[in-house]
Every structure is written in C-alpha cells, then in structure tokens.
Amino acid sequence: MKIESIYIAGFGRFRDFSYNFADGLNEFLEDNGWGKTTLSVFLKSMFYGMEYRNIKRLTEREHYLPWGGGVYGGNLVFEADGRRYRVERTFGKTNRGDSFSLFDADTELGSMDFSANLGEELFGVDRDSFEKTIFFAQMNIDTAVTDSINAKRSEERRVGKECRSR
Length: 166
Prior knowledge:
Elements: E1 2-11, E2 14-20, H1 36-48, H2 60-63, E3 73-80, E4 83-90, E5 99-104, H3 118-123, H4 127-134, H5 147-165
Antiparallel strand pairs: 1-2, 1-3, 3-4, 4-5
C-alpha cells in the first residue's frame, strides 16, 4: 500500500491544501503550529473515518472542524495490490453526517473493492492500533501492544510457518 497524494478541502487549519508524496520517506520538518498533527489525523481519518466516541472532552471531530467553515474533509489517492484508488470522505457534526466514496483512480468509476472500514480492510488493524503504529507524539509515547496488533502478528507468524513447512 502506498499513499500517492492528498487533497484537504477543509480540516483544522488546512483549507484547499494538496500534497503529492514522493517515493521513499516523506518528511514534514515544520515549525510548531504548522499542522503536522492535523495532517496525521487527516490521514487516519481518510482510512478510518472520524473519531465518534461520546466523551466529555473535545473530540477529534470537534477539534479539527475547518477553522473558516466550509467543506470538512478531502480525498486521498493510494495504490494497493497494483490498483490505484481515491477515497473521499466528508465529515458532519456527528458520524451520521459523514460520507464515504471510493473510486478507481484511473477510470474515475466508483469501486466496491473496499468499504467505509477501509483502514481495517487494508491494514488488518483497528483505528487505535493504526494510530499507535504511524504517529508518535513527542509527549505521548505509548509502547503498549493492542489486541489488534497481537492478532496481526500471530497471523503473520502462522502464515510464515505454513510457507516454511511447504
């Protein structure tokens, strides 16, 4: 799986923002306040949707509302299993107001290859596990292994043993 590009219509401080990823490592070496955390939450949201927990503190959904109003969401183009896709998501005040669409990025036709559970289908881990494996906040490093990560590791070990025994 490879991310090719993103377009953010509105997400936190970002409005009408595009970025094309290069092959290899892409670094975001920017000043505090630029939006590095916002960018990582946008990527997570494109794969997993927006956080929907009903909690007393400000949720990600509330925190990343576009600062100037307007469309809340964007799209992400990625390659998986030799095919290119574009996922589009917009977010409402609650998850009922969210939308998800998936397209073949080459033909622009709708695709049913993945559902709104895109992240779990692509990576085989839940939202919390994805977050713990792609983003390390400087002040919040947590090295705990989740049940989803353990299950994924066990599955990979089992498949590896089966391949070696053949």
